Amino acid sequence: MKIKDALNKLDPKNNDHWTSDGSPRLDVLKDILGKSVTREQLKSAANGFSRSNSVQVVEAEAEEAKGISDEEQAKLNLEKASLDLAKAQAAYQNAVSVMDVFISKNDRQPGSIDIKAYQRSQQEQRIKQRDKQIKMNQMLSGL
Questions:
Q1: How many CA atoms lie within 13 A of 43 on its CB side?
Q2: Which structural domain range is residue 59 located in?
Q3: pTM of the prediction?
Q4: What total number of domains does the chain contain?
């Protein structure tokens, strides 16, 4: 099996396949290939390959595979689309995480309103008002 084939087996959605900087984990590649691989070998096989740029290897193989059957081409297209989707999902999750930070930061700013506390205080005021009304009605009915 070639290094490119092993790289194509990595799942961009699987955190166990990647280092924190988005590079392929060498131990995972060793398990796939059955032999150790160095970073230099990775660079020569697929320079610039990373979790966010994993489509590069699939596209390179599509270029090399001119004259392949329609079924094989469809499989390559499907694999490329799957990697594109994984990349888009990772970007979406990153954007959601960034937005969550802003939202939580805004919730903790001085002067921000705690909606639940406000709703509880309003409910308490309505209960007190109702109790006063009941007492007033009892007093008036006693006259």
A1: 3
A2: 3-112
A3: 0.41
A4: 1
